[in-house]
Structures are given as C-alpha cells and as structure tokens.
Amino acid sequence: MHAVNPVAVEATDLVKTYPGGRKQPDVKALDGLSFSIPAGTVYGMLGPNGAGKSTTTKIAATLSTATSGTMRVAGFDVGSDPDAVRGQIGYVSQGTGADPRQTPLESLMMAARLRGVPRAAARDRATELLAQFDLADAGDRRVGTLSGGMRRKLDVAIGLIHAPAVLFLDEPTTGLDPEARAEMWAEIRRLSAETSLTVVLTTHYLEEADELADRLVIIDHGRAVVEGTPGELKATLDGDTLSVDLIEPDPTSVRAAAGSIAALRDVVVEARGISGRLIARADDAPAVIGSVISAFDSAGIGFGAVSVSRPSLDDVYLHYVGHAFEVDTQNGKAARS
C-alpha cells in the first residue's frame, strides 16, 4: 500500500558537500536546494552536467546522504526512515542495471525476488512488464544482445517491478538514437497517463523536459533557479527571441552595436573561437532585423543567419541562469556555455 500524500517528494534546503582531496577546497554539489513535487505528475529536473541533478536523486533514493537539509519521499524522511523510502521508490540510474548474461525475464524475476516477491508472483509481474514494454518477444534473449533502446526499457521495467509510488529516472535517454528516445518518451507518457505513478526525470535535453514534464525545476550550481510548468516558464518571457550567427566575433563590438538598437533587450553574446552567436529579446523581433543588419554592417561585424522564434525553454534557461544551455556532442552531456 502506497503512502497517501499529495506531495510525493519534498526537498528543503538540501546541501551536499564532497571533500576536495589533496588540500583542495570542498566541492558543494547542492547549495540549499528546495522544491516540491505533486503526486502523480512527471517532474523534470533540468540542468547541465554537474548541476546537482544526479546528487539529488541519489539522496532521494537513499543512495547518498545530505550534508544538511531534509528530504521526504512518499511521506517518509530519507534520513530517519530510509527502509520505508526504499519500499516506495524505483530508481533507474544512468548506466544499465541488467546483467548482460541474463535474459530480460531472468533479470525481472531476480529484481522481484530481491524485493521479497514470491516466485510465482514474480514471474507473473515480470511477464506483465515485458508485455507492457514491448519486450515479450525478447524475453528469452540475452540482455547483452539487445539494442540500447530495449536495454533502457528493461531498466525502467526493473525499476517498476514492485509497483513503486515514485520512479526516479536519471538521464533515461542519454546515448539513445532518436527512434529509441521517442519510444522511451512514449513509455514515460504511458506510465503517467495510465497509473498514479510519480515520475521524477533528470535530463539535460531541453526538448525532453518540454515534451514530458508537467512541472520542472531548472537547477544550476546546486540551486533551484526557477520552477513551474514549461508553459508558465515560457510565458514569463515577453516578445520574441532574435538570434544572429556571428563570424570571428569581437564581443565588445557586438555588444556595442546591439546596444545601439533600443528595441533589443536581454542581450547575450557568445564567442567560441571563430564563431559565436548573439541572442536578444524584442517585442517585435521581425521588425528589428533590418536595424540589426544595418548596425552590424556599419560596425564591420561578420554575421550569418538571422532567426526569430517564440520563447523556448532554451530562452528560459538563458534568461534565468544567464548563459546558454548547450550539449557537449562528444559525451552527450549538457555543458555550461
């Protein structure tokens, strides 16, 4: 029986500090993080690698302890009642948890037995989950022979083997191809729609957070920067976003040229070697394009494509955090720009 609580997860002033080692200063992974997750929702934690997302989920899953602050999951305190918390949660880490030598059926049955489920009931539950995740035809194959998308679905199924109240998914689609990622999104949406399960999703994909999260928190340097529904957050930004690709930019010259255009606000200039980008907001960005082109031409600033768009989560991140949100394409992790 799940604990009845309208708030599934609540963090209050969480701090997590790791020793720096070799006379280096301590590293503060969480710095007073607070948030509240309504039961039965998909809640996104969005931020770059190192923001504190995985540290937070590990504390919630009782795999780590906070230096200070409190956290309650499904009505239980993770510090004083970790056993009760473990009975209420499923946790899917970034790496696969299934033994490549086992079959999916064996993996699920073992996970169920470790949770104290009787053998007959364990087989029934495993068979049910294989069907739900479209893995029934692969139930007797070795896990090591499955595709990345199939292994990831199996990981989620293992996390659900004991019908938890809260499921933590830590970067569930990292490394998946677009088709496998779309399939995982569909599974998460199905879980949210068909059950009362609370899904806590950490991600560095803006599109994923926008697509799946009922509510989300943007985390940066271990703190909650802003929280709300994707729609609410985007609605806080008035007007349009104007973006200009820059060629061999001199940031000082670009800022000066942009500053001469009264209609532009929230101007950010990114310079990365021989390329860069200007991002700004305007009430009517299409009407400002001519002024931007004229100002850049007069200042001798090299530029390429000029684009206009409505507010996105990328714009929300830029506005509230102060720098763009970008993914390191070599390792698939989001990095601070």
Average pLDDT for all residues: 89
List the helices and strands in order. EEEHEEHEHHHEHEHEEHEHEEHEHEE
CATH-assigned fold name of the largest domain: Rossmann fold
Which geometry do the CA atoms define? elongated
Number of domains: 2
Oligomer: single chain
Largest sheet, in brief, is:
6 strands, mixed
Description of the molecule:
The protein has 337 residues and is α/β, with parallel strands linked by helices. It has 2 domains: 7-231, Rossmann fold, CATH 3.40.50.300; 238-310, Alpha-Beta Plaits (2-Layer Sandwich), CATH 3.30.70. Helices cover 34% and strands 31% of the residues. The chain contains 11 helices and 16 strands. The chain has helices spanning 53-60, 82-88, 104-114, 119-132, 148-159, 178-194, 206-212, 230-235, 251-259, 285-299, 313-321, and strands at 7-18, 27-38, 42-46, 68-73, 76-77, 89-92, 166-170, 198-203, 215-220, 223-228, 240-247, 265-272, 275-282, 302-309, 325-328, 333-336. The radius of gyration is 23 Å and the shape is elongated. The model is unreliable at 327-337 (pLDDT under 50).
Summarize the structure.
This protein is α/β, with parallel strands linked by helices.
Which secondary structure elements does this structure contain, and how are they paired or packed?
Blueprint: E1 7-18, E2 27-38, E3 42-46, H1 53-60, E4 68-73, E5 76-77, H2 82-88, E6 89-92, H3 104-114, H4 119-132, H5 148-159, E7 166-170, H6 178-194, E8 198-203, H7 206-212, E9 215-220, E10 223-228, H8 230-235, E11 240-247, H9 251-259, E12 265-272, E13 275-282, H10 285-299, E14 302-309, H11 313-321, E15 325-328, E16 333-336
Helix pairs in contact: 3-4, 5-6, 9-10
